[in-house]
């Protein structure tokens, strides 16, 4: 008597099946995302932002038409006359479509930090209470613009101004 032995096909291990399902799901997500990306309006705002824009040497972008906010100067820690410390953050709007001016601003970050530090380091903490903020902004803005060749800064904002007693 002759027996015919036909081996039973073995199922792939569970790990391989799971990996195949994950690959199929990933391909599906990529296809759906691509279709959605082509269907979205070019002017639509981002759906998801990862990380934080900006840093000490970068621009912080808050889109508002052609205008962006430059906060690449970062947070300054300025020692005052009476051993107190001034914490100051300076920002200003600039035209985002002027690439050469944007590059000049990025190259002048060190100069901007020095100008602001020199202006405030000659003051004592007691004098900051009576400081005319608009006059300080005007003077710092004048000094910033004196060093710029490819454009001008129109306005200046102190987004943070804090005195720590020493």
Describe the structure.
Helices cover 40% and strands 17% of the residues. Strands 1, 2, 3 and 4 form a four-stranded antiparallel β-sheet that branches. A hairpin with a 5-residue loop joins strand 2 (75-79) and strand 3. The chain has a domain at 67-164: Tetrahydropterin Synthase, Chain A (2-Layer Sandwich). The chain has helices at residues 14-39, 99-107, 109-121, 125-129, 133-146, and strands at residues 67-70, 75-79, 85-95, 157-164. With 166 residues, it is of the alpha+beta class. Residues 54-64 have low confidence and may be disordered.
How large is the radius of gyration?
29 Å
Please describe the biggest sheet, giving its number of strands, its sense, and whether it closes into a barrel. 4 strands, antiparallel
User: What fraction, in percent, of the residue positions are helical?
Assistant: 40-55%
Shape: elongated
Strand tally is: 4
CATH topology of the domain at 67-164: Tetrahydropterin Synthase, Chain A
CATH superfamily name of the domain at 67-164? Band 7 domain
Q: Kindly provide the name of the CATH class of the domain at 67-164.
A: Alpha Beta
CATH architecture of the domain at 67-164: 2-Layer Sandwich
**Number of helices, counting only DSSP H or I runs of 4 residues or more:** 5
- N-C termini distance: 103 Å
Order of helices and strands: HEEEHHHHE
* Beta-strand percentage range: 15-25%
pLDDT averaged residue by residue: 83
Q: Unreliable segments (pLDDT under 50, ≥5 consecutive)?
A: 54-64
